[in-house]
Please model this.
Amino acid sequence: MAKPIPQSRIRNFSIIAHIDHGKSTLADRIIQECGAVTDRQMSAQVMDTMDIEKERGITIKAQSVRLDYVKDGEHYILNLIDTPGHVDFSYEVSRSLASSEGALLIVDAAQGVEAQTIANVYIAIENNLELLPVVNKIDLPAADPDRVLAELEEAIGIDATEHNLVSAKTGEGVKDLIDAIVDRVPAPTGDENAPAKALIYDSWFDNYMGALALVRMFEGSIKKGQIVKIMGTKDEHQVLGLMYPNPIANIKTDEIRTGEIGIMIMGLKTVDSLQVGDTVTDAKNPTAEMIHGFEPAKPFVFAGIYPIETDKFEDLRDALNKLKLNDSSLSFEPESSMALGSGFRTGFLGMLHMEVVKERLEREFNLDLIATAPTVVYQVKQTNGEELVIRNPSELPEPQKIAKIYEPYVKATILTPQEYVGNLIKLLNDRRGIQIKMDYLNETRVLLEYDIPMNEIVMDFYDKLKSMTKGYASFDYEPIGFREGRLVKLDIRVAGDVVDSLSIIVPEDKARTRGLSFVAQLKELIPRQLFEVAIQASIGNNVIARSTVKSMGKNVTAKCYGGDITRKRKLLEKQKAGKKRMKSIGSVEVPQEAFMAVLKLDS
Model:
């Protein structure tokens, strides 16, 4: 059992940075320096638990660890809260930062400030955290710490005079950094005698212990055996066990006190009642108010996920239910498509979240899946005054019933080397972006801020941005609400039938070019039949683009050698009538590649 430590010697801190600036590697060095993990137990990115995290080199789930550290003969407890760096998981970042008093702001000594560095710093400043600037990777030949510190002061406006230079790879400067954490991060403040008040900032599912909640105690304490109330859902549960987080084996305890971080075991079968951001209190003597800022994570991007083998629908449902145990931000509901059969309309926090979920479903549950092109949520005001929320283009009402369509906008922050600015501005203008500001941080780097419709960035925007800037630009976005847009639904008809899964919502002025491009691509993808197949793009009943897949030739007159020409003519007439009949009853198989063709539509 862990011994209690006075509140004044607890330090809660997070690590924030852009992707690939060395957060998880630095966390490894801090854990090693504090002796929480022996050299034999150590592995690279010891806090990243999923295979997909280690392969892609990204953190998807925020992880925490309790460390013991002795400085000047005093025993301190350091609670390290590792956070995901990617924008799709920024919801977890904000909850993690709300649980901390300080944050290490890590910047790569070679790459400098990036878009997500800025985005995460603003969340930290909103939470009034003590920021410790840390320049990592100083062992690289291209490292330039002075330039990076100047960029930090210029781009973010924070004082970087007190900073730490470290190399997470070699361990240089890590001990000095831990001393700086003890000296500069404030101890938690909170009334130890007040009713219990704890923030759930992560939850996951364990096959043996059920759903677990990772909590930060703000006031009071929680003891083993106590009945607690989760304020958002009003549920009451008994605490079956308490632990302090450790990457190798969690440490059991009987009580989590003010300022501490711990894991609660309540024997729950789902994480639905343990929403990230909710407040836990004592059921008999509850706290007066919840910790502010709790709202469930909202999905922004929707896509249909279908099993390639139609009899695997139930397996897919089971897999999604199991995945939801570990990822409460995932939402899904059944839907069916004429072309793809039964599947689920699934909501994600962003494009990376969608990729990760699809890959986990395929790997962990051995499923073969097809995902339709991602779409965003629209709000529609009808002529009769009713308001609708549209998650799937096929739900859009007839054009004559629509008074206004509102689409979601995001604030995009892009940091780029100066030579690519012209190309990027053209790309952003093509995507209906509205420039808010453009700052030159130094002679080489430019910061662009744009308001842009989310519909324009969910397809291939990130790929285009990276290829235009040779991978040097960084991109971050945050939702800023809905604005009215001139949008229409583009339907695709194959052999006269509307293929519902190929419908997309596009800006009215781009509908014709998108329609022509889509139809041209489908012409290459749809296999030839024994009859001609018309592929049409239409808005309502107006066809705006058309292409024809030619029929396969078959020489029926080969057997007519010699004799009268009328024999051949008669045979050809018969053939023509047969083709006509075939066309009216023939159905065309639409291959899977066609559903992803929309991703390659060049605007």
User: Anything to note?
Assistant: The chain has five domains: 7-184, 197-282, 301-372, 379-485, 489-600. Residues 45-50 have pLDDT under 50 and may be disordered. The radius of gyration is 29 Å. The longest strand covers residues 402-417.
